[in-house]
Amino acid sequence: MIKKFSISSIFAQLLLLIFVFVWIAPTFGLFISSLRDKDVLAISGWWTSFTTTDVNEIYRTKGMEAQIEEDGYFIIKDKVFEEGSGKIISRFGITSKNIDEFEVGEIAVFKDGSEISIDEEGNYFWRSKDKFTKKKGKRIFVSATSPPSFTLDNYKEVLLREGLGQAFINTFAVAIPSTLIPLIICSFFAYSLTWMRFFGRDLLLATVIAALVVPLQMSLIPILSIYNDVGDLFGVAAKSFPGIWMAHTGFGLASTTFLLWNFLKSLPNEMMEAARVDGATHYDTFIKIVVPLSIPAFASIFILQFLWVWNDLLVGLVFLDKHPSEIILTAKLKELLGSRGENWEILTTGAFISMSVPLLIFFSLQKYFIRGLVAGSVKG
Amino acid sequence: MKLIKLIISVLTLSIFTSSFGNASSAYTGPDLSGESLTILGPWMAPEDESFRDVISIFENATGATVEYGGSDEFEQIINIDCQAGSPPDIAVFPQPGLAANIAATGCLKPLGPDVKKLVSDNYAAAQSWIDLATYKSENNTNKFYGVFYRVNVKSLVWYSPDNFEDNGYEIPTTMEGLIALTEQMASDGNTPWCIGLGSGGATGWPATDWMEDVMLRSYPPFVYDNWVSNELKFNDQKILDAMDFFGSFALNDSYVNGGAKAVATTDFRDSPNGLFSSPAECMMHRQASFIPAFFPEGLEAGVDYDFFYFPAFAEKDLGKPVLGGGTVLTATNQNRVTTEFMKFLMHPEAHERFMEKGGFLTPHIGVDTGKYASDTFRSLHEVLQNATTFRFDGSDLMPGWVGAGSFWTGMVDYTNGKSAKEVADAIQASWIAGQ
Amino acid sequence: MTIFSLALTVLLGILAFVLFFHVSNFFLDYFGKRSSKIFKLENSIRVIIFIAPAFIVLFVFIIYPVFETIRLSFYDKIGREFLGWSNYAWAIKDPDFRRSILNNFGWLLIVPTLSTFFGLVIANLADRVWWGTIAKSIIFMPMAISFVGAGVIWKFIYDYRGPEQEQIGLLNAIVVALGFEPQAWLTIPIWNNLFLMAIMIWIQTGLALVIFSAALRSIPSETLDAARIDGASELKIFWSIIIPYLQQTILVIWTIITILVLKVFDIIYAMTNGQWQTEVLANLMYDWMFRGGGDSGRGSVLAFCIMIGVIPILGWNLYQHRKDQKV
What CATH number should be reported for the domain whose range is A156-374? Predict the structure, then answer.
């Protein structure tokens, strides 16, 4: 291909850049949100965390328990900000009706005659001629600028949660067989649909394609009933790992077979003929010729099915129990999210943690992925 | 002879007091080592940890193993598990209406008369709690199915005492006073109310709570009961009036934070934030007793926030009605370990352990109220015990497809501009259609 | 279960299937050589070995539930009383059902078309720049995110706050910065469907992109070079050479995405729960199947409607298959 430095090429780059920018903005927003302090997540947009922003906050001073006597006055003093917060106060107030009445450093007087002042860094100084008698402190309203700040606290909170490691392991224990078993079964199946002749083949193929559309929710109850019946018969638990492997195999069968069939169609006739002439059985042909050629297709389907199983929530909820030894990652993260929907920080962080594994696998299988899926839908 | 009499009377006395649930005694149960129990419920973080702590009392006392799993897809999962034949031993229903639906399928098994007696002996207004757990079985006969554990009070208005003080507002003791206060706040330039209906797949439920509170304050309790059973049609004028009363707050852009448009899109968990922001985005928030769990961290009950009773109309003379809700625990089998756990739930210790963690209220009369996590809860306990009329959350009692379906979506439509009549007609139609 | 016992179970599970095929084929070969009767049947037995596991799985997990579904659609909500066609009659009259069909149509028209188109365009563009692989990976990334994650991501885009408040949703922030009033995007009828579709396009374009980008490789470079030397503009090459060449691919991708769209559920469930006139069939089905005790009769009718949507697609695929039969 001739590389040309032309208007068209610049235009193409620009257009692509726009697409990329639009596509990554949402995910980028999520990523930044996961690094923000949880209190600000629902209050300000994620793009504000890059710049110094103006914030209005309310703090409560300490109460009578913290007072000391100095020079004939009773003093309460403390710092409202945490160490290293970097916030700089510009104005403050002592009543909700006028939150920025005073400039920093000015002295404000309460109704009871006591005086309070606060400096830029949040150190306040409250003094009264009479002893402080209230346990409850007074509120100070500050208008401050807050520097960009990010934190890894959210990730710590989620990753160090009890049971998360086990959930990771459980999900792997579900995802790997649920990806490999369909691959094994469907490759033989797809081979026979392409390269073997038998009665009812076309009908079977049509059934597979039709099966692509069957909604998951319809199958849940009938299948779980069967599991329960079988479980009662043999005295084993209905909800178990082998159970969910077969369930995922069932739900992924149609698409796996469809894609494999698409690929196998593209293998040249002559190769198969030659093998037959040499006296090879279908099994030999399959193992020795077809499988090596299909590695790209296998890899592609592996990542797609793995993605689907890893991100699944519903099947995991229905076919496995929710106790710690079996719960999967998506369910665990939803559990952490729990009734406290306020925990947006857990959602954002959890989504990224969960996304990391499929992305990792995707990147490592990149080369196969591109070459694989294609063949079969492409001529020549 | 005297000795025997003494021993018998002491034994009788101890049995008598222990069956009455003396607050200072610890739970003891039969030996159930090796047995196991599964519980499915709607509680997730952090309540699930509190519940697991309660469970550990039972486990330690009996040697049984109990596993609790929570899901916010509870309704879906219990449906699937029941229909497929693999329900948990104990199911915790967030809505009695749903429990009634499931009971009718035969998945739940009735509780014995001994459990029923424990409820009637130990709960304030026990008959109401028993009635609320009595549903039609698959043979269409009424049976007692559940024990209410962890209840909440809903007729509350949350506010910041400091903000009220700054503005010179007084807590209203009548509904007329509340309306006047709302007007006063608006003319002062403050926003009176924070209302948020968002809740994922359950968006709309906070508005149903408003409706129920308004109904209880507008008409005698029997009207409420007829409404909940559909003897009074949903599109009756009484209900339209109640809806419009709610609308007089929620649809007025100057009365509600963010304007009427924001009501349905603001998540119920985010909406109380307006009480605590600077400048304050609203002054009052009507919500159930479990809402403090969603307030910003670091706030103290009684100091940074408090509640007052959502008042009744002075001129209607209907007393002090209280709306509340709760979760009901049911059993899907009649195994020994399941029944023992249900009995355990009626022991004060099972309540006190959760009380200490906060976020828990109970109608149990034998608990030590000193164990509540804060004075706020003690006050709520008083509200519960002193209500002149107590009614359970209506939408939780209506059939599932209405109370957890069209009523929710209907209220969302109402805040989006549909007329009360349109909305009520649709809900009434859906009530009939689903039967 | 300990990690060790779990790993062991996993290994045994996978091994079981590998061994099934290997051992059964081995025995077939072995006995085939010994007995002439078996030798004659060898082909048939081999076919059975190859398709048996998949067929059993297909039957149990797909065919049986489908028949159950169709059966249940004629019964009452708990599957006991036979109701004939009344569930279907209800569906035709139900306004929610009609709106769902309308919405699904909208989805089917817009999403596969746009995803396929964008995928094709981006594949082309990415092919011509040195940072193409990075671009492709970024566009593919949404596919790796679970629907729960996608829901949160787009919440931070579509979020609405009152006009005087600070916006935390990106779209409203831009709108406000340009001087307009913020909107509650997901509540605006008709438009909200488009906003939801945007999410699915955002996800599915990655799939289209990857397939196209490999397909592009198979176009002979001589053809393209010749056209360029002749002075044809890139746009002309795109329309007259690339698209015709990729016809087959375009149609396959369009099929896959169409089927995914027929079943779309999670996005609508997480973002609006079908409110504000965004219902689609899958959400309606979920509502009837699992809310308030469940009505398997009506839920099944809705499932059936989703399933018959595949018939045209099925027909087309079989037609193509007839055209390029192998054996």
Answer: 1.10.3720.10
